[in-house]
Amino acid sequence: MAASELYTKCARVWIPDAEDVWKSAELIKDYKNGDASLQLTLEDGTNIEHKLDPKTKNLPHLRNPDILVGENDLTALSYLHEPAVLHNLKVRFIDSKLIYTYCGIVLVAINPYETLPIYGTDIINAYSGQNMGDMDPHIFAVAEEAYKQMARDERNQSIIVSGESGAGKTVSAKYAMRYFATVSGSASEANVEEKVLASNPIMEAIGNAKTTRNDNSSRFGKYIEIGFDNRYRIIGANMRTYLLEKSRVVFQADEERNYHIFYQLCASAKLPEFKNLRLSTANDFLYTRQGRSPVIDGVDDSKELCTTRHAFTLLGINESYQMGLFQVLAAILHLGNVEIKEKDSDSSLIAPNNRHLTAFCELVGVTYKDMSQWLCHRKLKTATETYIKPLSRLQATNARDALSKHIYAKLFSWIVEHVNKALVTSIKQHSFIGVLDIYGFETFEINSFEQFCINYANEKLQQQFNMHVFKLEQEEYMKEQIPWTLIDFYDNQPCINLIEAKMGILDLLDEECKMPKGSDDSWAQKLYNTHLKTCCLFEKPRMSNRAFIIQHFADKVEYQCDGFLEKNKDTVNEEQINVLKASKFHLLMELFQDEEKATSPTGQAPGTGGRTRLSIKPDKSRETSSKEHKKTVGCQFRNSLQMLMETLNATTPHYVRCIKPNDFKLAFSFDPKRAVQQLRACGVLETIRISAAGFPSRWTYQEFFSRYRVLMKQKDVLPDKKLTCKHVLERLVEDQDKYQFGKTKIFFRAGQVAYLEKLRADKLRAACIRIQKTIRCWLARKKYLRKRSAAITIQRFTRGYQARCLAKFMRLTQAATVIQKYQRMYVEKKRYRKKQAAALAMQTILRAYMARQKYQALLREHKAVIIQKRIRGWLARCWYKRCLEAIVYLQCCIRRMRAKRELKKLKIEARSVEHFKKLNKGMENKIMQLQRKIDEQNKDNRLISEKLVGLESSYAVEGERMRSELSQLRGVEEDARNKAIQVSSLLEELEKLRKELSVTQQEKKTLEEWAQTYRSEMEKMVSELKDQNGSLKKEKDDLNRLIQEQSQQMTEKMTRAIAEETHQLETDLNEERSRYQNLLSEHLRLEEKYDDLKEEMARSSNIKPGHRRTDSTHSSNESEYTYNSEYTEMEEGSRAGDDVTRGMDTSLTLKLQKRVTELEQEKQSLRDELENKEDQFQRARARDDAEFRKARGAELEYESLKRQELESENKKLRHDLAEMRRSLLGNTAAGAGAPGSPAYKVLLDQLNASCEELEVRKEEVLILRSQLVSQKEAMHHKDEKETMTEPSVFAEDVNKLKDADELKQAYVGLKDTNRSPRFTRPPLEVGDLLSRLRSAAPDLHRLNEDGELWLVNQGLKETVRLLEHQLQTQRRTYENETESLRGELQNVKEENNRQQQLLAQNLQLPPEARIEASLQHEITRLTNENLEFMANDPAASQEARVIILRRMVDLMEQLEKQDRTIRKLKKQLKVYSKRIGEMGAGQTEGQTSPGQMVEEPIHPVNIPRREKDFQGMLEYKREDEMKLVKNLILELKPRGVAVNLIPGLPAYILFMCLRHADYLNDDQKVRTLLTSTINSIKKILKKRGDDFETVSFWLANTCRFLHCLKQYSGDEAFMKHNTQRQNEHCLSNFDLAEYRQVISDLAIQIYQQLIKCMENILQPMIVSGMLEHETIQGVSGVKPTGLRKRTSSIADEGTYTLDSILRQLNAFHSIMCQHGTDPELIKQVVKQLFYIIGAVTLNNLLLRKDMCSWSKGMQIRYNVSQLEEWLRDKGLMTCGAKETLEPLIQAAQLLQVKKKTDEDAEAICSMCQALTTAQIVKVLNLYTPVNEFEERVSVAFIRTIQTRLRDRCESPQLLMDTKMIYPVTFPFSPSCVALETIQIPGSLNLAFLTRV
User: Fold this and answer.
1) H or E stretch including 1421?
2) What is the pLDDT of residue 1595?
3) Which of 268, 783, 1070, 1106 is most buried, most CB within 10 Å of its CB?
């Protein structure tokens, strides 16, 4: 296939980018061979030109089709290269929030830096038992694959978890171990799996620390071997550790921490047990504060210490050892704080009494003197002498740090050793799974010895990984019989040889360490000399002589030589070790004892990671033992790594590569640069390269045929699909090297699937275009024809209409012409006359107007002339004034100029006489001022003199005038005196007349005002009465309405509350049933386990169990054994089992017995509680209904009576008002209304009466309101209570009134109470009334002056207090009565139990002894009652004795009467027996009473039997009981019985046998029969528990037996549907209620076993039939699967379809119907089955990305519709099964709806009510297009959904609980079968049974 076929326009490619590593682009021009560049368009629209390499001419990588993006397996991609891998991981991680991805055999795990809900027990159960490729990638899938391969291949497994720090290695390993602990269980009761998991917090505390890349980074490598027994259950574990980073103990970089355990101790320093450690905060110690980051966000170190201590305890490290460990750790911290001072340049010292050194010595138990001495000195030994050499300050500090590291390494080794001891087991290990958590490839700015060892280990692991991948590829090719050609892959053996071969880096390092004066520089020179020219992988930096570069498989790494020798030697001062060995501290002595022989806890020296080497000369006596000790760290690490590789090579490896997405620990943030670095380093890209070098894409023939069927023609399709695929491929792909045909698969080269997808997409696109073209043509033609027909019709009707309109128009035109002729003539004539008249009028007006205008013009002209004259004069004057002003101004200016000149001259002259002015300074001014004052005074004098002259002249004139007037006034005065005398007499007379007039007017006004006031007051009073009457009516109506509303609300509240309480009680009842049934199943499981243990112990002495793998989720509860037929043999077996059990572990037996006892007690208590709750619920419900009806009737009666009373009072008020009006209107005379008149008295009487009635009505209204308020409050309190058993106060008071008469009396009493002096006041007097009536504006204060409102308020308060007191009293009385009734009920129960026990004992006695025992019991009971009565009331004890004696006498008399009656009846019975014997009416055994034995011989008579003579009983002998059980239960074949006989026949036979035992009154026989029946059913179910027919058969028969016990129990509740004959067959002597409960429990157990059996049958069909199988062919496309279905996985047994599920459901239903199962029980079974189908399907859908598509949603909905159709056919639509499928239906709808806009989000939120938020978001994240026509769900849309569903309150659980079983009930179903008509077939071998 040429490149030009793929690199065409619109093809998408990847081009390199500096920031994003790879960037997507699209070709805008076809590529042609020879082009030097490509024309591309980036995703942001930028056009670029990509130049090709002129040498290689390599084209850029092609992008995969969109449908392949986001695949679970990277090998499923068509184009396998780095950008495709990176993009696929990014899409899954960022868009879909999926952190796991397969890459062939590797699981790539990206750290999300966020807690995800995908590790719960439900997820573990979902992955358990599944093939690796069937579910979405997960660490649990890898763990399950390892577990299954271990069980199937019997080969040890390994899970290798690698990655750089912070990538999540430790967490992945932890989850893998959790998976093994969950699915495998423990082989003993020691909870080994918990111990294995408990080792994690310990190792994290002592081996993990915070780094700049990870808050919980493992600073050591570990390999944990989890051991399993031959049944693949965990029995123990073993741990190996590698290369502990000891340098972290004494040094940490910035933003890093020491090991967690130090900070946990410092955070818990205030605990009392840590007081003697003398600890404080982490910032106070050198070893914990160097990183300056002592706290990790979100981590509480004190709580973590509690977790660590709990783990220590769980692993058997007791409290004393724990305190010892903490003591050593605290000593290390104190040692780090020891300050060493410089004494001189070559020596140092420690200050005496250094508190930290003192604390160190006290904690480890050494002397201060010795430790301070050897911290600053060292001992040198030669052949002859020993020297003590002082150390410099730097050397002493290094020695101190070396000692700290050495102590911590010892402590670490000790802890690992004890953890392994705790995890070891005595059971033989059959196989193991190893989990390797080891550091990934590391490169830093400064790389030292630790990074060198880490990268060396990764080189070894990478080599092993490459070989394994290569091997798997070869196996796959060989299996498919494809020619195998060697694939070139990177072999890193040269790099490994450079490190570990002879004269390699490690060899030269060890050699340099042995040199006396070896140094890092000399070692570096040796490296340069040895490898620089001989090895291409070794390089020397240009600018350094103390470093070297190694080309690793991942990258080049530059190592600094500083510190290599010291770290490789790992030396410690010998004398310091000796001081510690001399310690009295037991734990320290244990750490350092036999140091020369110290190895790792597994016996491997490298296990501790860097063993310590002492730089002391060994003694000759220890020469042999010290050889191991001389090994360097590098040598030890090389050996341990070699052993690890041998272990891994001996196992089947599984790889988990952890990727760190970013360096900032941001949740779901992806940095492409960092990801690519790690992908290159961890081998993922190498896997891709190896796959791409061969045939990476692999399709089965069926998958290829289904996917590319569209590329085939009809003639190409052959019956043989393999041959069809060959022909099609040969036609589509010409180059046969691009594919190969295997046995079951087709192998494609890289890119071929993309090419086929392109052809398929082109074909589908062309088909879509053709379909669209045809459809559009058909639609357009159909539309055209429709329009053409419509147009023709419209034209026809339009033309006809137009013709008719034309004819009409012509007629109208002719008529209009005639009309117009005459009309126009008339109009013209009229118009002419109007114009003529108008012209004349206009002429007249115009001429007048012109005359007026002319006159006005002349007038205006005249006036204008006058105005002009005036204006011109004014203008001339103005001009003159302006000229004058200008001239004056000009003169002023000239004069000013001249004055200035004169002034200038004067100033010049003044300068010459300046000294004269200085001498006479100010004299001139004073002279001028005086002169001016004199002039002013003279002027004033002249004016004053002129004024005086004027005044004198005027005064003289005025005097003359006044004198003349005075003379005139004197004459007038004389006349006035004479007239004044006359006026005074007239005034006196006038005053008298005025007084008389005023008196008369006042009297008249008074009378008028009184009459007016009286009339207005009367009218006002009448209006007020009207208003009050109207208000009373309104209040009455409002009250009636309020009463009705409240009664309605009360009814609704009561109904709603009762319904809610009923629903709540039903819910509680179902929960109790579910809990009780779960306890039953647990009890059954423990019983079965107990039986299995007994049998296993019994068989262990002879036969060993064979190898057989059990289900991964539980231990085997089955045991293959046969049952003996005879009861004696079973007894012998049980005795033998008991003998064996005595030899087994007694503690286990006691535990099981104790557990069984506890479960039985709990079961009994739950049963009692359930019965009590049901009884309480029924009683409360009945009592509430009765009380509500009674209260409601009383309230209505009371309300109607009240309304009648108010209406009668209203009528009375109307009548009084009418009389008042008539009296006012009838007497119109002036004196009629005067006081004292008859009308006035009548008015006052009526007014007083009306006022009195008005006050009474007001009080009654107030009281009625208060009652309504109290009623409302009572209802409110009643609603707040938990049960609706207490009626309200108002209802209780009304309930006490039995009939209408009592209600009337209560109402009259209420009125009298209202009129009592306490609540009323005396009537008003007449004067007071008049004064109030005559007051102008009465106010509220005057109305309340008598305190009437206060009285009403006080009355209401008293009423409320009285009602509250009554309520409290009644409540206390009710509670006391309830308590007393409960106590009496308990006493009655106890007494009933005692009576039943005594009755059971008495029934076993002979008749005479029974009478005496009953009498003795009655005497004892009376004596006890007498004693109790005397203790309670000594005063009444005498009377009680008399009563007791009388009762005893009465009992004796009754006893004698009963004896006489019994003797009489016995005589009659003998007489009747003789008569029957003489008549020969048959045998008399059935009629013999239980207490009588008939001794007369019975002679057989040949008389034909009649059916009516049978009583429906079966008789059998006691010794035949085991034969009955064996033939009817143990050896019965359900299939034959179900087909040939009536349903439930074994149940009827057993009950008929039971009836006969009851008839004989043989309690022993009844007990043994029921016990044997129950045990036998349990045994047959245990033996054949996997057989559905057997379980269904015995479920139906057990239920029928239970219904028979109820139907014939004699209880009236169960006898309603019986016939008269069936009622005669009821049990007469025994009450089997307790056995009914036992049998009900047995039925529940059988039901649960039936559900499990059906689930096991359906489980393999559900996923295949509901999800994988294409019910609608051609809808869903098949996508490439990569290496999902690998050869290492278990092959599918077959393919199931939906028809398989429906056939199985039909089989279940038909079998249950044949067995006679109750229809209600069948409905519950079907509901449970449909729940299992829906839950399993939905869980798989949520865990499988390849199933979340639009087409799969259609398939699911179709499958669900088929299930619903099955329900309709069977008539089971009402059983609730459809509702259980609602979550699955909504998930399918979610796959099909639009997912773009906010409206779509709102629709999804309202539609998916049965799905949780986590499930909705999961489905949207997993949604994957199968074809190019579908679109992915955007991240923004998912965020919108999450925002809208944020307020939902629901469980965060993702998966549905498939183990949940609905609580089962067994509704009573009476049988219509008559017992006497049942025939026993001979095939049952029950000939020993006799019908009675």
Assistant:
1) helix 1407-1432
2) 94
3) 268
pLDDT digits (tens, 9 = 90+) for 996-1034: 888 888 888 888 888 888 888 888 888 888 888 888 888
**CA 247 to CA 1491: how far, in whole Å?**
96
**Residues 1612-1648: tens digit of each pLDDT:** 888 888 888 888 888 888 888 888 899 999 999 999 9
**DSSP state at residue 23:** E
Q: Read off the DSSP letter of residue 1690.
A: P
Phi, psi (rounded to 5 degrees) for 1649: -70, -35
Q: Nearest CA to 1201 among 1189, 1212, 1209, 1211?
A: 1209
* pLDDT score, position 1429: 52
Q: Are the CB atoms for 1738 and 1783 separated by under 8 Å? A: yes
Mean pLDDT of 279-304: 91
Distance, CA of 737 to CA of 749 (rounded, Å): 8
- Reported in sequence order, the residue ranges of 1052-1113 that DSSP labels E, i.e. its strands, are none
Note the pLDDT of residue 1415.
Answer: 57
The highest-confidence range among 750-764, 1185-1199, 1590-1604, by mean pLDDT, is 1590-1604
Whose tokens are 């033992």? That residue is 625
| Gap between the Cα atoms of 1166 and 925, Å rounded | 134
Where do the H-state alpha helices sit in 290-392? 301-314, 319-336, 355-364, 368-375
What are the CA-CA distances from residue 177 to residues 140, 169, 181, 435 (Å)? 10, 13, 6, 8
- What the block records as the tokens of 39 is 């024309």
Q: How far apart are CA 260 and CA 288, in angstroms?
A: 10
- Split at pLDDT 50, 70, 90, the class of 1735 is very high
| 745: nearest Cα among 1668, 1826, 73, 1686 | 1686
Q: Which residues contact 903 (CB under 8 A, 6 or more apart)?
A: none
Strand partners, 433: 157, 226
- Nearest CA-CA partner of 1229 in 1241, 1219, 1239, 1243: 1239
For 893-916, b where at least 16 C-beta lie within 10 A, e where not — what string?
Answer: eeeeeeeeeeeeeeeeeeeeeeee
Neighbours of 1283 (CB within 10 A): 15
The three-state secondary structure class of 959 is helix
- H/E element, 1891: strand 1890-1891
Q: Which residue has the higher pLDDT, 1267 or 1311?
A: 1267
- Strands 221-228, 431-437: pairing is antiparallel
pLDDT in tens, 1761-1798: 999 999 999 999 989 999 999 999 999 999 999 998 98
Mean pLDDT across 1698-1719: 92
Contact 1268, 1046 (CB under 8 A): yes
Measured in whole angstroms, the distance separating CA 1530 from the mean position of its chain's CA atoms is 49
Query: Which region holds residue 609: left if phi is over 0, alpha if psi is between -120 and 50, else beta?
Result: left
CA 1733 vs. chain centroid, Å, equals 23
Element (H, E) at 1368: helix 1348-1403
Is this model's pTM higher than 0.85 or not? no
As a whole number, the mean pLDDT across the chain is: 78
Greatest extent of the chain over all pairs of C-alpha atoms, in Å = 198
How far is CA 843 from each of CA 837, 840, 847, 854, rounded to the nearest angstrom?
A: 10, 5, 6, 16
Rounded distance between C-alpha atoms, residue 1243 and residue 1251, angstroms = 12
Q: Name the residue with tokens 């139906």.
A: 1596
How high is the pLDDT of residue 1706?
94
Say what angle helices 1719-1742 and 1813-1822 make with each other, to 10 degrees.
Answer: 50
Q: Residue 23 corresponds to which tokens in the numbers above?
A: 């960037």
Give the mean model confidence (pLDDT) for residues 694-707.
78
Q: Beta strand pairing status for 613-614 and 571-572?
A: parallel
What are 1706's two structure tokens? 């039909």
| Phi, psi (degrees; rounded to nearest 5) at 437 | -110, 100
Q: Which two tokens stand for residue 1232?
A: 């009629």
Spatial CB neighbours of 530, under 8 Å, sequence gap ≥ 6: 503, 508
